[in-house]
Each structure stands twice: as structure tokens, then as C-alpha cells.
Amino acid sequence: MSKILEGLYYSDDHEWVKVLEDDLVLVGVTDFAQAELGDVVFVDLPEEGDEIVKGEEFGAVESVKAASDLVAPISGEVIEVNEELASEPERVNQEPYEAWFLKVKLNDPKELEKLLDHKAYKEEISE
Amino acid sequence: MIQYDKLIFELSREERVGYSLPKSRFNDYSFNDLNEQFLRNEEPYLPEVSELDVLRHFTNISNKNFGIENGFYPLGSCTMKYNPKINEEIASLRGFRRIHPLQPASTVQGALKVYYELQRILSEVSGLHEFTLNSYAGAHGELVGLMIIKKYHQSRQDFKRNKIIIPDSAHGTNPASVVVCGMKVIEISSNKRGRVDLQSLKEAVEGRDDIAGMMLTNPNTLGIFEDDICEITKVIHEAGGLMYYDGANLNALLGKVRPGDMGFDVMHINLHKTFSTPHGGGGPGSGPVGVTKELEPFLPNPRIKKLEDHYYIEENGDAIGRISSYYGNYLVSLRAYVYLLTLGKENIKLVGPYATLNANYIKNALKTAYQLPIDGNCMHEVVFNGLINKDTDIKTLDIAKRLLDYGMHAPTIYFPLLFPQAIMIEPTETESLQTIDAFINIMHKIAIEAKEDPDKLKDAPTKTPIRRTDEVFAAKEMIFSYKDYLTYTEEREQ
């Protein structure tokens, strides 16, 4: 059974969003996503200062199975990129909720309300 | 030799040679006369071995191989049918082997006749007007086909058409070919029946004047026939685009339905799949491209034509140009020609039906243990989404590896991407009922093992020369040569 944390927001594309303060969030992929992907070997992320747009691709995760696009769960400016993932992409498999991809400053914090909470996400993946 | 795990470099001994060359007579030349930019900085690193070393090395390696001649090879989407030996026998005839593409056409009339007649047969089988055999592989054929589509629009002074529609179930080569050809991809989703969603397609082309065409595989990568095909081709044609048929799955239709009749304008054929030429070692392949009469002038040069009893070579000014140095992989074309003549007009019609029957037989026999995401009849291949029993942590990869222990090649796994635990099985028409039954029994046995003795699957394969490979390491560490390997081990020691 996949691990789902309380207090995070989730997207249909199996990403989590964690609010740090007001409009500052971390973005990563869920335990369910990492299990489906299989062993991750490469993470392709945007650069600091880039804009990401909800519903559009912002990068890709490459596993031994396939390369999958990352779809932005929210819109905003990339404040920081988790550089560790470049050399240790396996952390996405080991600790999906620790291995964040991006720190983003939200354009509109209200966008969070459109995401799933942990209960709704649980239902989503048990379908 | 049971275990053999040497690299040829490890056999190397200084000054050992496997050849004997006469003394060089080129005394008037010196390396020093060469411009410095042409000189190497260091000696090439080559293994120094005897002829016997080389022979044993490669014989031992070849014994580790598994091919269609070792056992069942149901690799979905690859059509691993048996390649009859008569193909090889004819291709090894001196008259075919010892000719050169630059020989005068009058001295190679027989060889040109084979090329010409294969073009004609492929036209008849596919319902398209004219073929070129010059493209070297399926993906090369895709690129050539798209270049023809582009050239067609440009010839009509219509320069804005640069979008190609591709369904989400497509082979990865389709979008790649589009990008290489300098065009852009519009992806459309499949519906619940695993087919092109007609509504999404209509929306995607609505009001646009930049649609160059659509690439489609039929049956698609789920092994399902696109039954809306006539409607699909109509939508694209009305939007001003052309239809491209990816011939990857032509085997299912062979002798029954023709892409030309479904409304396709351009297609490629993978001779190594449908027409029983070798798959091995990445080549040599062959991907002939066929087009409608309207597109014929754009086919690449050189062309082979016939005038009464004489075959000649033609260069056409409207062609997209040359896409190969000469006439493609000629001996591969020859093998396909032999295969077609051996089967004959009547037996070709049985290929698609038997391939389809075999896949459906497997589908029905396995659907009690493996999850069938889309029900209904399949064509030449069937896609399961892992085991029905999802209580174990057994993945498709473990099932595939366990099959190797039973002496069968694994099916294609994790493709198509629509299902996370995809297993794609294509038995082809050349397997007997006994072989297919044996495969079904083993797959059921594996499903039981998954529940009762999952470690057997997690540890698999245990009986192959190489156990489970470290895919993460292979993907992350770029070791392509012995030199890379030495650098890697050195760095690790430090």
C-alpha cells in the first residue's frame, strides 16, 4: 500500500505540494508515483527563476522503465531546485516525501484549494 | 564451457597477432607528412589476440544468446516470426552477393528485377501505388515518409503545415521522427476502448490550417483494430492533412485489409517484422516506403523502373533527394522477396488470421490470471496489465525474468505506456499449438508462484548465464568501451 501523508496537497498527476509558509511550497512526487515509475535514474528539472504553469510540463523523470513528463500542480516562480537529485536520483524512490523537486513561490495561493487532500488522493489511487 | 565472462581485452597479450601481412611497400610516405590534426594523440587501444582466441571468444559469447531458434520469443510489437532458411540460401547465392551498386545496369538486370518486383508486390499487398526500398529501417522509413508529406505541402506552396497528430499509444519513434523532420507533435488521447478518441481528434484539428498529417499504427500498440479508421482518415483529409501508416503491426492485416484502402497516403513496412528478414543485432533492417499516386514524384532517388523487358535506374527532379547511398539493404529486400514468393498469393492471406488467432487464444487462456485492461478481441498481440492478484508486490518485471528460467524469451514489458504494468505478447503465426500451450502453462505456473513462492520470481532469473542485471547502474554509469571501464574501475579504487 502506498504511503500518503496528511497535511499535503496532491494532484491527479501524483505530485504532492507542501506549504512551507504562505505562498512558498515544495513540490515532489508521491510514493505511489515512485512505485509505478520504478527505479529513477535521472531527474530533469527547470532552473531557478523559471516560471512553471499549472497543467503544463516542467520537467521529466526517467526511470528504468520509461521517461515521464512532470506536470505542474500549481503555477509560480521556481525559487530553488533540489540539486541533490542530480547526483542521487534514487532518493525519489527511497524517500519520496523528503526528496522534493522544486521550491516554488505561488502566483495564487488559492490554486491550492483545487488540489486533492490526503483522503481524496487515497481514493484517487485506489480506483 | 558453462561459464564464460571474459572481455576480449582481457585475453590480450602484448605482440600477439592473428594476422600475417606482407611488408609495407609504401616507403615513400611517412606519418610526418600528415597534417597534425589528422594524427592521433595516443595509440589506439586494441586487443592483441590470435585467430583462435577471437573465434573461441565470440563462439562462447554466442552460446549465451537466446534467439527464435532457441525457443519461444513472444516479444510484442516486434513480430519475431520464424525466418525460413530458404531466404538465407537464396541471399547467399554468388550472383546476388558479388555484385556492386555501381555496376552498369545492363550487367545486373536480375538484381534490379528482384527490386522492381518486390516494389510491385508490396504495392499489391498494401494498396499503395508505388514503393521505394531505399530506406534502411522502420524509423528511417518514418522519416522518409514525413519528408514526403512535408514536400507535398511545400509543392502546393502551403508552408504553414507543420503539425503531425499522434495518438498517445504510438511507438516512441513516431514523435521522434516528427521532431527530426522539423515538425511538431500534437498528441491525442485514447478512449476507454483503447482506440483513437474521435471527438478529441475532431477538436484537435478544428479550425486549424497547419495540420500536415497524422501518424497511426493499425492495429494500434494495444493490438486493437482502430475500427473508426475510415472516419479518422476522413477527418484528417478534410483538415488538409495526409495519413501516415506505421507498418509496425502490418502482420495482423496481411492479406486481409490494405492500408491504401483504409485511406492512408504514406506508409512504411518493416521488412524484418512482417516479411521475415533478420532482426538481429540492430540490423541490417529495411523500411520500404509506399505512397499514393499523387505522392509518387516525391519518392527518394534512385528509382528502379521498367521499360518492356529492361530495368533501368532513374533520378527524379521532384524527389525529396537521396536518403541512402544506393538502394537500401538490398540483400534484406531479397530475403523478403523470397519469403513472399515462397508463401505465394494464397498463403499470404493466412498470415494475419493465424497471427490473430494465436494472440486471441493466449488472451483467453491467460485472462483468468492476468489483468486484461481492455476486453474484446485483439489482433496479432495482446496486452495485459500485470497479475490480477494485486496483493503481492510482484511486478511485471519479475514475471518477465521468471519466464527466462523456463527457457522462454520474455514478452515486451512496460510498453505501451498506457498501463503501468504492461505485458505485451505477440506469438506470431509461425508457432505451433504445442508451443503456445506450453507458454500458457508456464504463465499460469508463474502466477501461482507469485502467490505461493514470490522469492522465486524476485530472484529470477537463476538459470541464465547472467542473472538479473542492475538496470539502474546500467542507466546511470556511461560505460561504453573498455577504456571507459578502466577509467571507472580506477576511479572506484581511489
The oligomeric status of these chains comes to heterodimer
Q: Which two protein chains have the largest interface (Cβ within 8 Å of the partner's Cβ), and how many residues from each?
A: A-B, 11 and 10 residues
CATH third-level topology of the largest domain in chain B: Aspartate Aminotransferase, domain 2
Fourth-tier CATH superfamily name of the largest domain in chain B: Type I PLP-dependent aspartate aminotransferase-like (Major domain)
Distance between the termini of chain B: 35 Å
Corresponding CATH architecture of chain A: Beta Barrel
User: What's the average pLDDT of chain A?
Assistant: 93
Total separate domains of chain B: 3
What percentage of the residues of chain A does DSSP assign to strands (E)?
A: 35-45%
Count of DSSP H/I helices of chain A: 4
Strand content of chain B: 5-15%
Q: Explain this structure to me?
A:
The complex is a heterodimer of chains A (127) and B (494). Chain A has 127 residues and is of the alpha+beta class. Chain A has one domain (9-126): OB fold (Dihydrolipoamide Acetyltransferase, E2P). In chain A, 19% of the residues lie in helices and 35% in strands. Chain A is built from 4 helices and 9 strands, in the order βββαβββββααβα. Chain A has helices spanning 31-37, 84-87, 91-94, 118-126; strands spanning 9-10, 15-21, 24-29, 40-44, 51-52, 57-63, 67-71, 76-81, 102-106. In chain A, the strands form 2 sheets. Chain A has a 6-stranded antiparallel β-sheet. In chain A, strand 1 (9-10) and strand 2 form a beta hairpin. The longest helix of chain A is centred in the last third of the chain and has 9 residues, at 118-126. Chain A starts with 8 loop residues before the first strand and ends with a helix. The model of chain A has no long low-confidence stretch (mean pLDDT 93). With 494 residues, chain B is of the alpha/beta class. Chain B folds into 3 domains: 8-62, no CATH class; 86-343, 3-Layer(aba) Sandwich (Aspartate Aminotransferase, domain 2); 350-472, Aspartate Aminotransferase, domain 1 (Alpha-Beta Complex). Chain B is 37% helix and 10% strand. Chain B contains 16 helices and 12 strands. The relative contact order of chain B is 0.13. Classes of the chains: A alpha+beta (127), B alpha/beta (494). Chain A binds chain B through residues 36, 38-39, 41-42, 62, 64-66, 89-90, and chain B through 395, 397, 414-415, 417, 420, 471-472, 475-476.
